[in-house]
From TrEMBL:
GO molecular function terms attached to this record: acyltransferase activity
Source species: Mucilaginibacter robiniae
UniProt protein name: Lysophospholipid acyltransferase family protein
TM annotation in the entry: 12-40
Superkingdom, natural source: Bacteria
UniProt keyword annotations, A-Z: Acyltransferase, Cell inner membrane, Cell membrane, Membrane, Transferase, Transmembrane, Transmembrane helix
Amino acid sequence: MIRKGFSMLGASLLYLISLLPFFILYRIADVLFIVLYYIAGYRRKVVQENLRNAFPEKTTSERAYIEKEYYKHLADLIVESIKLFTISQKDLEKHFTITNFDKVVVPAFAAGKSVIGAVGHYGNWEMAALKLSLLTTERRIIVYKPLSNPEFDSMFQKMRSKFGATLIAMKNTMRKLVEYRKERTITVLVSDQTPAKREIQHFTTFLNQPTAVFLGVEKLAKLTDSAVVFCDIRRIKRGYYNCNFVPLFNDVKNTAEYEITNAHVQYLEQVIKNEPQYWLWSHRRWKYKPEDMHK
């Protein structure tokens, strides 16, 4: 009961903070960066190890620069994500723009196809998912991983669905997409999460190391005969992002095994290499190696 009370208090505090204008939130982010980077050293060993393994060709000073810039972005990402609880449609459309939706997704709909979109933990993927709700009247589906705290989970569900998106918990994705197979839908999945050890079916090379990857994008696309796109999110400037819809596969039935998975992983890798500071380096992405599967 006490824990629930603290959770509700925390959720209420986040809601109140989200009411603040962006310029004040970014002053908070400036302080938060100092706390995360200099005082708490939040997961700095994880970030440094990830950067060393991903970019062995870079100098120590080059990786240190990426590390510091990443923490600045992380602080911004935290306050921006809080802002999404109360952001208006007008502000969302101002801060997040879209490219190629009409040229890539709309023609797929016109051909009677649904669309599966792969997105990485890059830029502000939460803002991208929210903006998706404003792009079409067809069913917009956001696949999410429920939070362990029910109060915060409920709060995030309300935020993600407030402009009309349909939320599907990750474990229910396949069943629900089959249920919606007679509709034209666009489904967005975060494709660079780490599978649980028992769920690992495929390793690919990603950022210079063997990486366990989910096969969800590929399996769902083939199950529903959907077109596959990559949601290429880029930071324009502080607080402003763009998502370019990049076509990957239109005829998924003629693809080889793992071809779709390797394609969206490689595209994300190139995005990260271009501007590495905007990926989620504090995530423990490489928990498992191929040799671990025999233990």
